Amino acid sequence: MSGYRGTPATNAREAAEWSTGRVLWSNLRAVIGRAYPRVIGLTREPSWIFFEIALPFLAVSAFVFVYRALDAPEEFIGFVVLGGAVTSFWLNVVWMMAAQFYWEKDQGNLELYFTAPMHLMSILAGMAIGGLVMTSSRALAVIGIGSILYGVTYSIDQPFLLAGVFLLTMIPLYGMGMLFASLFLLWGREAYHLAELLQEPIYFLGGVNFPLVALPGAVVGVVMATLPLGVGLDAMRQLAFAGSGVEGVLPVGVEIAILAAMGVIFLVGARVALRYLEHLARREGRLTLKWQ
Amino acid sequence: MSQRAASVRGITLADAWRSFRTAIGLGWAVEANWSDPFLFVVYTVAKPLAAALILVVMFDVITGGQGTEFLQFLIVGSALWNVVFGVMGGLVQSILEDRERYRMLKYIVVTPSGLFPFLLGRSLARVIVSFVAVALTLFVGVAFLGVELRPNLVYLAPATLLGILAVISLGIFMAGWCLQLRQEAWHYPEAIAGAIYLISGAIFPIDILPSFLHPIAYGSPTTWWLEASRRGLLGHGSPGAMGTLSDGAVMLFLAISTAIAIPIGLAAFAWFMKRARQAGLLDMVTGS
Amino acid sequence: MPDELAIQTRGVTRVYKAKPDPVTALGGVDLDVEPGEYFGLLGPNGAGKTTLIKILTTLLLPTSGTAKVAGFDVVNETAKIRRVINMVSGGEQSGYGLLTVREQLWMFSQFYGLPTREGWRRTDELIEITGLTEQRQQKVRSLSTGQRQKLNFARGLLNDPWVLFLDEPTLGLDVAAARDLREHTISWKAAAPGRTLLLTTHYMVEAEQLCDRIAIVDRGKILALGTPEELRRRVQAESIFRLELDQLPRNGGIAGIGELPGVLSAVRADEELADGAASDRVALKVALADDSALTSVVTAVAERGSLLIGLVKSEPSLEDVFVELVGRGFGDERSDDGEAS
Prior knowledge:
The complex is a heterotrimer of chains A (292), B (288) and C (341). Chain A is 75% helix and 0% strand. Chain A contains twelve helices and no strands. In chain C, α3 crosses α4 (116-129) and α4 crosses α5 (145-157). The chains are: A mainly alpha (292), B mainly alpha (288), C alpha/beta (341). At the A-B interface, α2, α3, α4, α8 and α9 of A face α3, α4 and α8 of B.
């Protein structure tokens, strides 16, 4: 049989009719397909082990030493270590999803993604999942080495709840990443600075290195409403350092509800934004112009 | 001056200057073009301020605002860190952008002046933006956080010059290294900056570090530059052992460490470029 | 529905916002392409070919007008269109350099929803068909331009598209690589009847070799449409042949040839003889109403005692057609370059 004939349909119309199941499976395969080059890249360029694990750990250590210099209570060291670990996922979202999506446009891949039948969210999910190996390694290294080296003592009464809160935080976080992926394309002519802009300001607003209650009330309110990193980290700290004496902004139960709501909002928002982006791109011709 | 006398290893100084000058304009055009003016301003202001505010809040949470000397130490260190990251990041970003995005690198390499002057010029825009960040952070520190500046320009000027030379050497080294990497290395400068952040006494005194890291910390020119800059801006040194050294000693160590860093950076860059030519990396496009 | 057109456009326009003035890349294009047809868009840079292809592949919206691919509207039914099309552009550098040829193709097969094993199977088949067997484990970034384009072509066939769009597919390729690619395209036609191809090119040879019908495009409009033969007839209705004879025909000579049925004119054209030709050689230029009259001419020449040494058909090229239509050649760029091509 000739290699050219792959489909049993007798005409194009027939070939275009896909069942819902086929659509879902195709998108799932697209996720795997897009994750593949990222995972393979880890094995072919092992320098990431140094850059993505050892060095970020050192950066977290800098903040540990600031607290040591200030003679801070030991739980603050734990806050920094936990914050540094969770930051890894934020960086994955910003650099390996949002910024990467922009760079795909430069490479000419975005055009091919648009003409393929899978949804763009599948591509973004594939990017994120593909980066998770690196990201998780980074987070585990920070938590593991940091906790041992700096003598962090955790007080975890509800480990499954803690794990659940972590996973729940990832949903709106990655939804936000998908939203940013479209915003990067809409707002800017390149992704590097935009991604950089989303680091220190987000670390500050998210309370990565200090308890969120330390910020003014109005700021905290904004964070609680918009930033899954801040909400999730606050909840995780309350669960990982129960009885530390440093309070969270809101009770864990309330923060879980906020995260769940954020998950829905950001994923829906991402879908809407990507659809709008695609429409705008097709209307304005932005996909076909490189340096706009 | 004859052309022969003016040339350096086949490249004339005029070629190098022309390339450098042109690259400055190009670098600024690229630097100022990545978004609309509003977002550009937000980036220029928000990023360095947020970095400083993180430290301020950390300080405030623990001390309740007491001990302004340490706060000044933090603010100045955080402000100046923008230059370290700006220069290093700028050099690496320039080289990766020109290779991967604009596909210009190979064309620059084959010009008479080569890559080096172009790279320096191209990254200068980022350096300038980082000094804006320094000024902004110091302004906020003075205006809102009780930082008292007592600038000593006679001390500060040579310290700044030496410091920038040292940081450029570091950046050149990083740029050459990142050129070897077959996967995108865009965020590697940040990773390296994080490590240097740890050992340079930027936000905590060197004494706090484990003792086995002290030789590395004292060997880094960025450590001496930050200390010299603090003396030039605040009129006093850091808390801890470094603060006991004289201004002259600090400047001397800065000069020595910079004098070592410059040839190392240049030699490393030359070696990395040779290796890149051997491996065909100058026009490689990666991506994952 | 089997009778549905593969591609249909009505009044498609596309205007780009540009400074100082908007650019009209397409100014009202009407096109009907039948299923199974290989259709070419031939025109210079900036003609609007790529803009049209971008609209048909759902990358771009038309400013006005309608366009359908496989009966689905490009504006509102993009998901269905994307399931049955694929596109390959010339000079394409897409994909990921660190993957091997085989991995890259498999990855793209997943974007089209092929089951994993089926994806590998088709990948291996297409690698063999496009002659990339030796490069299968080679990293994409180390491929030559020709190999890269073969890879892109293989990618374009992964999902067995019902409509394949080739946008200047041989751009930048050497003669051999371009020929290979055209042969693969012809093989695809034989192996997959009923599949439609829309090709944009500014290489006339390519258009003539591959396409059943061609539209000549310039400045966003279709200037002429037809088979290559029909297009040439616009410029030169008659068939012109140049005959090289060993001597003048006897019994009426050239005038006698000119009086044969189907012969419009016969003139001597010795100036077209090659330098150094024997002095008694004769060149004739005959204009025929139809190619079929050639037989009687050749027969008459032989009957009148002349030996036919050479026979060449003189045909206008498609560029001649273009010049006839527009008044300038493909290489004469217009002064108001727009953004799109």
